[in-house]
Amino acid sequence: MTAHTGENTAGSPTPLPKTPDAIELRHLRAFITVAEELNFGRAATRLYVSQPALSRQIRALERLVGCDLLRRTTHRVELTLAGEALLDRARQILSDVDEAVSATRAVGGELLARITRYWEPFDEPDPELQVLRTAYEDLHAQFPPPPEVQIRPINAGGVSSLLVTPDQPLDATILFLHGGGYILGSAFGYRALAGALAAAANTRTLVPDFRLAPEHPFPAAVDDALSAYRWLLDTGTAPDRIILAGDSVGAHLSMSTLIRLREQGLPPPAAVVSLCPGIDLHCRSHTEHGPEADPGEVTAEQFQRRIIGDYLAGHPDDDPVVAPLRADLTGCPPMLVQVGTGDTHLTDAHELVDHARAHGVEVRLELYPVATHVFHIFWSFLPEAADALEHAGAFIRERVEQAGTRTAARSTA
């Protein structure tokens, strides 16, 4: 809350002092309630606070504005002239805030309804795989890539891929592994999200079209990701200029790739970016929303377990490569984890962050007030998604710049 000021030029009115930053809405709400009741006891009851706590809020407000707002005696409470001057203005401020929140909720509700419509094709119980694959491609096809990036096909170590390049990119490459539960998705389908991340980071982005289950179970996807990483190294990209990134199960694949790199003695990337990570393949932390399913109906969690079973194809699920929360992450590069507060995989994100920190990894967790999984897909119209990608881009640029500083220091040593 800041007062309007006049121009600071000769002959202009003296600028009004700025409102102290420490004044909060709760202070104004407490003052208005006391002014209306002219009784601290009744006002405290209305606000569901104790009378001493209410008195402290009023005293704090008076200290911040620098004058008495209320005149107190043992028998009555009265407004001072300063209090009368503040009362109507404070009411208008709270009214404006309430109106702003109402408008924001209305817009947010419309956006959430729009997002829900995009996910409707996936609500059918036990859908056919090919139907799901077509619907997933159709979903992504509704969002074109940003115009400032160029996209071309490329063979990355035997893996069909797309290379997304912004104008005048930094000397670095994001290896982006797409989501889709290991059974859905494609590099072509993900060109919009990969393009948005490439533009935000001003960095080339390689999107491998890794093989999908059940036709190609574990370790096919991991092998393809490793082949693409090796190709980057073989073509001259320094490991400290590679960023591993992925959304949903693509974030899981990023961690699997990171662990396998260590097993094979390959250098790690500069950083890892996980967008709404689906780390728990067996959904032990997955939260179902909505009414209880019919006994004979296949729930989303059951379907998820089935497709992950197709991916593992009998491979032990306690292998650290497919269970990153069991892996020793000591020495892993810095990580950025982003997730929506209403995401069914929110617990996955917290567990990944906690596990990485327990092994000394530098981790940044960013929470966004969004109630959908992989909200980044909707960056073209969802403000939180656009903001998240900008933050991810800044994180990537920061790591690239640090790598450049280290390289320059070594060359002058």
Q: Which percent bin holds the helix content?
A: 40-55%
Which shape, going by the Cα principal axes?
Answer: elongated
Provide the CATH topology of the largest domain.
Rossmann fold
Poorly predicted ranges: 1-18, 287-298
Class derived from helix and strand content: alpha/beta
Let me know the average pLDDT. 86
Corresponding CATH superfamily of the largest domain? Alpha/Beta hydrolase fold, catalytic domain
CATH architecture of the largest domain: 3-Layer(aba) Sandwich
Oligomer: single chain
Q: What is the alpha-carbon Rg in Å?
A: 27 Å
Number of domains: 2
**What distance separates the N and C termini?**
52 Å
Strand portion, in percent? Answer: 5-15%
Total of helices: 11
- SSE order, as H and E? HHHEEHHEEEHEHEHEHEHEH
